Amino acid sequence: MRSNPLSSMAIHGVLILYSALALFPLLLIAINSFKSKKGIFRDPTALPLGELYSTKGYQSVLANGDFPLYFGNSLTVTLISLVLILLLGAMAAHGLTEYRFKGNGLLGLYLILGIMVPIRLGTVALLELFVKLGLTNTLTALVLVYTAQGLPIAIFIFTEFLKSVSGEIKDSARIDGLSEYRIFFEVVLPLIRPVIATVAVFSMIPIWNDLWFPLILSPGEETRTVTLGIQQFIGQYTVNWSAVLAALTVAIVPVLIMYVIFSKQLIRGITAGAVKG
Amino acid sequence: MATLELNNVVKQFGQVEVIHDISLSVNDGELMVFVGPSGCGKSTMLRMIAGLEELTAGDIQIGGKKVDHLPPAKRGIAMVFQSYALYPHKDVRGNLGFALRHAGMPKAEVTQRVDAAADILGLGPLMKRRPSELSGGQRQRVAIGRAIVREPEVFLFDEPLSNLDAALRVHMRVEILKLHQRLKSTMIYVTHDQVEAMTLADRIAVFRDGVVEQCGTPLELYKNPANKFVAGFIGSPAMNFIDSNVVNGCAEHAGQAVINMPDGDSNHAKVSIGIRPEDVRVKPDGILSGTVQVYEHLGGEAYLHLLLQDDQNLVVRTDADSAYRIGDTVRFDVIDSKLHLFGENGVALPRQLTS
Amino acid sequence: MSHSIPSGSRWRWYIVFFVAPATLIYTVFAIYPIVESLRLSLFAERDAVEAFVGIDNYKKLFTEPYWADQFWNAFKNNVWLFVLHMLIQNPVALALAAILSIPNLRGAATYRTIFFLPTLLSVVVIGFIWQLILSPLWGITPAFMNFMGVGKFFAPWLGLESSALTAVTLISIWQYVGIPMMLFYAALLNIPEETLEAARIDGLNGWSIFWKVKLPLILPTLGLVGILTYIGNFTASFDLIYTLQGGLAGPNGSTDVMGTFMFRTFFGFQAQLGDVNMGATVASSLFFIILIGVSVYLFGVQRRLQRYQA
User: Fold this and answer.
1) Is the CA virtual torsion C130, C136, C139, C144 positive or negative?
2) Staple B4 to which of A93, B26, B241, C209, CB 3.0 to 4.6 Å?
3) Does any CB of chain C come closer than 8 Å to the CB of residue B58?
4) Do both A89 and A151 map to the same domain?
5) CA of B154: how far to CAs of A193, C220, C269, in Å?
6) B4-54 pLDDT, tens per residue?
7) How far A83 CA sits from the closest chain B CA (Å)?
8) Is residue A276 part of a domain?
9) Closest approach of C64 to chain A, Cα-based (Å)
10) What's residue C7's pLDDT?
11) Neighbours of chain B (3+ CB pairs under 8 A)
12) Same-domain check for residues A194 and A127
């Protein structure tokens, strides 16, 4: 629309206002995490300069929390689950779209059922299963659950994408003499690279941020994820404001950095994926 | 280079039979075009030759050797696809050499063959580009190059030009023709475009509903179509068909005897007279007449769409310097020796020229 | 499953190779637990032995005051949560998406990035941040409200029975508005430019184009957002409430939802003992509630909306 400057100003006014609403809480926490307790209370909105500046909060986080360990756990769980979701999801989607076999349609439906039925509803039986398998308080348990949880949406998106891709390239590879296995790994995998980003985003965020399964399946000190670690840490230090704010900032910053680096691909992936869905 | 034999080939998808007992042989070095409307089975036939679909019955021989149990790569074929099917993550050189490297050919030989193919197709300056950085015509050339480097016994083309715009299509058609003259290899070319078929083919096989309606040189098909379908499919604009009653051994139109029935033919009461637009002569004392409904002027020639007296339609080619208006009555004669007759089942009746 | 070619009898092992791993993991760790939970809900522990009790557990859940009170309270709270999300989150998301999809809007990418940011952060982190900001102890919110001249309306909302649930819901909306926004945004971008040009030629202006052309065209997305909101409310709301209000979902159960109720029932909390079978019963009830919602969506809403698609 070729709008007049007035309505354009109103539009930007609204957008800036909402941006402030979205960013202010995060900035407030980050700013105050670098202040002493006194500074936090005396002047919450001031920048952490001069006598207000203090890293006491971060010192107590480092002293009392095992945050590097938690980060390691979260990273391990998220990355392994992600690789499994992407690989197994792409394999299944390829198998379902490329080959005619009995029960193909039903199997496809079965595999995407999980989009509508949250896996959390099976928690009771899941815990019993892991107790039987001796996998409680292991990262393996989390990886298995998150993989199972992420597969339906991954298979759905990959299937939709593969359906839209011409099958001729696979036939061409067959004529070039590739086996069915190599066709998948050397032709199909490179082909679906654009949607891998979408699926990765859809799968990664809920895994990294999940509280439910770490709390239930692996609450032990050694296997705590960042999300659970923060939750427990803050539970213990409710009065130590500097420490709480520092812990929150520690949890935000890595995600923020990742987001800034990847935001373009990420948002393109989400919008592209949403268009397909 | 080799001959290709199809013997009693049948293909079923589930309960549906899409290829009914087709037998065909392609000579060494011949360019055979499979033509027909979509869904006629021509592409399925090609995919069976390639080994991408299994045969339900029958067999396929390339160079006298049965190949229908062999995987595609072992049949001595190469295929060019409609969507080009280039590997998007490899550059032109990578695409051209992929099959050879995969087959374990020494690097030096791969390079030499790839360079030779690139030379033929003028791909030299593009070798480092990825498919996404190429135009449609360039992609098509890479796809052809990928087939050339394999030095196959038989080339298979599956509607390779249908994704190109009209001008480029004509250009690439000529290039494929030159390529065939240069390589002199056996080629099978699938298209739904009869102009492509006419201009490229040594021989054409016209497919319909899973059978080959007729197989022959372009001129044979044009001059002696075996049935109404082939007659209507080959030639542009398409042949006119005039429904006609047989009276006293003569096929009539609007009370005028148009053409004599073949000698001794007395078992047809109704026939279709096939008249190509180019076989009509407009002249003031012509015995037939019609009203102009549409007048298409193409510059070098013009076409009249006539409504005949009994509401049948006839397209007529005429001189470029003639002038007609809608509603004009036009008189014309037909060239007797170039008419075709078809029985009610669509099969062509043998013609003996009476003149 | 049988992976046989219709024409031959060769086994195509590669199909098994592609499909089996995903099917196996998914079946064992997603489908089996849900089915097993449904089974467990029909059993109870009698004298240390598991015994089949039919639908007794459900009867107990819906009629025995101790259970029924909690169940219906949690259910009612979930409904309120859903209603607020539908009334606030989704309209705001639609408005933001509509503004962002204005052609040639300067800085659209930046705004989009900012609006989506809270979605990426852990609910736990978001929960604590808002707890601090709303805390009367820190005084950020009262100070801000004083500045705006409405200071006398401040109350420790998260701590009051009357406002805690609404406050929690608003925090959740603040965090998640980015997801429906992106879905709407993608749908709006997906409308062909020519359709909008045709509308302009037909004499429609900005507002009427939005209401009469764009909105009907993105109705399927509206339906999708609706069902995603519904499912999310019944399952994902646990994280935020557990973080902010604890397992008892205080004050006095006023923020209790199906998620926290299920958690307490299964694991026990403080004096209450955990009960596997009742936990499974709550989960299964939730399963049926979601199933009803999804069925309504699939057979009612989606089918009717689909017709609008080009």
Assistant:
1) positive
2) B26
3) no
4) yes
5) 34, 50, 76
6) 999 999 999 888 999 999 999 999 999 999 999 998 999 999 999 999 999
7) 21
8) no
9) 22
10) 40
11) A, C
12) yes
Q: Find the CB nearest B83 among A168, A173, A178.
A: A168
Q: Are residues A36 and A125 in the same domain?
A: no
CATH number of the C56-306 domain: 1.10.3720.10
C153 min Cα distance to partner chain A (Å): 20
Are A89 and C22 in contact (CB < 8 Å)? yes
Q: Could you tell me which chain A residue has the CA closest to the CA of C123? A: A209
Sheet of strand B4-13: strand arrangement: B16-26, B4-13, B57-62, B65-66
* ipTM of this complex prediction, to 2 decimal places: 0.87
Domain count, chain A: 2
Contacts of A180 in chain C (CB under 8 A): 12, 14
- Residue C8 CB partners (closer than 8 Å, separation 6+): B54
* A neighbour chains, 3+ CB pairs within 8 Å: B, C
Q: C85 or A273: whose pLDDT is higher?
A: C85
Assess if residue A277 is contained within a domain: no
A and B: number of Cβ contacts within 8 A: 60
Chain C: nearest CA to A141, how far in angstroms? 9
- For domain B4-233, which CATH number applies: 3.30.70.270, 3.40.720.10, 3.40.50.300, 1.10.10.10? 3.40.50.300
Run of H or E residues at C267:
helix C258-267
| A39 and A74 together in one domain | no
Burial class (CB in 10 A: 0-12, 13-18, 19+), C166: middle
Whole-Å CA distances, A271 to A19, B237, B293, C37, C91: 20, 48, 53, 36, 19
Q: Do A152 and A194 sit in the same domain of this protein? A: yes
Same domain, yes or no: A45 and A77: no
- pLDDT, tens digit (0-9, with 9 covering 90-100), for A63-90: 877 888 998 999 999 999 999 999 999 9
Using CB atoms, pick whichever of A231, A234, A271 lies closest to residue C189: A271
The nearest alpha carbon in chain A to B99 belongs to A176
Chain C residues in contact with A117 by the CB 8 A cut-off are 34, 287, 290-291, 294
- Comparing A36-50, B58-72, B76-90, which segment has the lowest mean pLDDT? A36-50
Q: Do C5 and B56 touch (CB under 8 A)?
A: no
The residue in chain A having the minimum alpha-carbon distance to the alpha carbon of residue C225 is A274
Q: Does B52 touch chain C (CB under 8 A)?
A: no
Q: Where are the domains of chain B?
A: 4-233, 240-342
Comparing alpha-carbon positions, the chain B residue that sits nearest to C7 is B56
Residue A183 DSSP code: I
Tell me the residue type at B167: A
The whole-angstrom separation of Cα B316 and Cα B276 is: 8
Report chain A residues whose CB lies below 8 A from the CB of C119: 205
Residue-range definition of the domain harbouring residue A21: 5-60
Q: What is the pLDDT at residue C308?
A: 52
A93 and A52 in one domain? no
Q: Are strands B31-35 and B203-208 parallel, antiparallel or unpaired?
A: parallel
Please give the full DSSP string across C96-141, using - where no structure is assigned.
HHHHHTSTT-TTHHHHHHHHHHHHHS-HHHHHHHHHHHH-TTT-HH
Q: Which residues in B lie closer than 8 A to residue C5 (C-beta atoms)?
A: 54
The per-residue pLDDT string of chain A (277 residues; one tens digit each, 9 = 90 and over) reads: 455 677 888 889 999 999 999 998 888 888 888 888 888 887 777 788 777 788 888 888 888 778 889 989 999 999 999 999 999 999 999 999 999 888 899 999 999 888 888 888 888 899 999 999 999 999 999 999 999 999 998 999 899 889 888 889 999 999 999 999 999 999 999 888 878 877 887 788 889 889 899 999 999 989 999 889 888 888 777 778 888 888 888 888 877 887 777 777 667 766 665 444 3
Contact B186, B136 (CB under 8 A): no
The C-alpha of C289 sits at a distance from chain B's nearest C-alpha, in angstroms, of 41
If one looks up domain B240-342 in CATH, what number appears? 2.40.50.140
Q: How is chain C split into domains, by residue range? A: 13-40, 56-306
Judged by phi (left if over 0) then psi (alpha if -120 to 50, else beta), residue B191 lies in beta
- Chain A interface test: which of C10, C13, C19, C112 (most A C-beta within 10 Å): C19
- A73 lies in a domain? yes
Within a domain: residue A261? no
Helix then strand count (H, E) for chain A reads 14, 0
In this complex, is the C-beta atom of C292 within 8 Å of any C-beta atom belonging to chain A?
no
C104 pLDDT above the threshold of 90: no
